[in-house]
Amino acid sequence: xxxxxxxxxxxxxxxxxxxxxxxxxxxxxxxxxxxxxxxxxxxxxxxxxxxxxxxxxxxxxxxxxxxxxxxxxxxxxxxxxxxxxxxxxxxxxxxxxxxxxxxxxxxxxxxxxxxxxxxxxxxxxxxxxxxxxxxxxxxxxxxxxxxxxxxxxxxxxxxxxxxxxxxxxxxxxxxxxxxxxxxxxxxxxxxxxxxxxxxxxxxxxxxxxxxxxxxxxxxxxxxxxxxxxxxxxxxxxxxxxxxxxxxxxxxxxxxxxxxxxxxxxxxxxxxxxxxxxxxxxxxxxxxx
Length: 288
Fold this sequence. Notes:
By secondary structure, the protein is an all-alpha fold. It is built from 13 helices and no strands. The radius of gyration is 25 Å and the shape is globular.
């Protein structure tokens, strides 16, 4: 093959690699379709196994034999405190007030739990859509981003489910007003369970957000140290919004969020020298 033909082929590949706006929309549509398909598969399986999903997964934090209660009680006894840290879970009696509420709630819960389980795949589809528009240097810097984002999201959900939800549910169901019987609805219980888990999964992505902002130069470790006091106030506000009004639940959220903030400062500090290296011009060879 002639050299000029090779050049023509390379030019055709470059032109072919350029996509129009409609082509990008079509590509995005297929990424969304594949993501929804995986979420639907998980959701259908969970809907079929809804007895296990509700009895073990959804209603688990409200039961006395939940693993968190048993672990705390065992820890209390192991350090010589007896039953000091043994919590007695308040029995939760739920009711439905809508004609189709059980069916609609089963569909909704199956979709939400399916979304959580499919989160790594959804993030991978997002990465596949975004990565072709990045420079090779940016793609290299983002290596492992899907794994890190998936791990942090699932870590936040697991934290909310095993640590925050049991204490929050126990507090809310045990809080009574004289003359009022607290009989929560199934829909109310599910909404609070979602609030105890999904927001924490998103909040735990803070180190990733800081890494991106530090890479593009919008924030630095010095800025984050300077606004540490303001950050503590914001963290307390966020913890107060996504938790019930009790000190234990708020502290359970505040401590890991502040830890994530300090970790983000370390990340921003480590990212900054890389920016300096990237911006450094190539050294010219000077004649001796």
